[in-house]
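Sample entry as discussed:
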Amino acid sequence: MNRFCTALLLCFLSHLLVVGQSITVDVCVYGGTSAGVIAAYSAKMAGKSVVLIEPGRHLGGMSSGGLGATDIGNKQAITGLSRDYYRRIGRHYGQPEQWTFEPHVAEAVFNQYINEANVPVWYNYRLAGTKTQDNRIQEITVESASSGSPASNRTVRAGQFIDCSYEGDLMAQAGVEFTVGREANSQYNETLNGVQFRDKHQFPDGVDPYVIPGKSESGLLWGIDTTKLAPNGTGDKTVQAYNYRLCFTDDPANRIAITRPDGYDSTKYELLLRQIVKNVPKELTWNLMHFIMMPNRKTDINNCGGLSTDMIGANYDYPNGTYAQRAAIIRAHEQYTKGLFYFIGHDPRMPKHLRDEMLQWGYPKDEYTDTDNFTPQLYIREARRLVGEYVMTQANCEGKAVVPDPIGMAAYTMDSHNCQRLIVRDANGVPMVRNEGDVQVGGFPPYPVSYRAIIPKKGSIQNLLVPVCLSASHIAYGSIRMEPVFMVLAQSAAQAACLAIDTRKSVQEIDLSTLQQRIQAQTKRLVK
């Protein structure tokens, strides 16, 4: 080995020590989401040793998992490495930057970052245990996500930890305060939190909830809850609906037909038929679902209407669930989604023009080739949320409260998908099906996100940053929770971790102006 190679090896080992099934690094990033990749890249390019742990087999989270139609609002709010990501996507398509893209292209760009920085990634490993002492995470233990066997366990010791998971698992295991669900409006002096009974993504009036219309003794149709509708603004523990963002194609040369899935149950879609009877749509788009076109004749399909791709009410146990419980919830969402599209295309009760339109679409042969061409990433719109040193609220979104410690900008509408599907009564006392929880209120300019919203409270864990499950009320989180913003906050988190290491301070004590200077300097150096 020549001197140059020896020097490089010694330099590497001085930052990263591996002993058996244990590793010691400067920064441990948990969760290979879009935020996780950017955090790992940012920290490594700042000269720190890093390990990225991803429970699945792919990087990028929702950005490579089907959400190719980037939600942001005002793109000028997106800066730093996050903006660089969309410029790299653009270069692939021969454009200065690109905000709509195919899943495999998105994943390839995330892999570019990892390869350029030479970040080690532990795929298929998930959190199994966390050891804390003196308000610091000392180490975490991870296990094989496929076997769960203790023989496969590995231990990571690090100076700083960054939780970039959609679930906030590291945050929770470290004992940091968090919340799940919707706060009452009174808690943070808001108007759009808690129960919100509105007309968007709603059933038409008069859709009967019973198996045999008009006969309550026949039982409720699938997916309807018996909970009584509470007054607007009431807090609860419900969670806005999850779904899959579907990549389909109508290119016959690249199309795989949508076939009857395992566990198919047509009764899950009876409400769709009743919805259509009230108002027969001319086409699928903007009536039963939202088709957004991606390059190369592909789609990003999202929820739209009373019954669509959102599986309302099926995710309440997900945020705090065990791995087995989550796997069952994910599987149920997959069966529901695959069944919905099969139902639309094949059930003879569906209008023929809608069946014919649906049959034009199928799974792309060149996407998700290791998971039968169906995305492995469920859209976890919201799970746990940190209760940190500062809580972002509706007032921040609307510009009525402006934080003094900004580390990035958010710009999207305050957005929540429906949380409940209930029975309500019309003016004559007749029961009907209605959804509850959808909010879409915008019209405000970009606003700053507080550094204190990504760190635990003072007196809590001192070496943890949480840029994804950050500290925000339910309705404020609905505006912040966009993939480009997660990447912006992740770069800030990574630089905060590096600064904390360099100054030997807690994440609560670092100097904000120095942090902002470091973020700007790295952006200037790396973003072209």
Observations:
- The domain at 23-177+446-526 is CATH 3.50.50.60 (FAD/NAD(P)-binding domain).
- The chain has two domains: 23-177+446-526, 198-381+418-440.
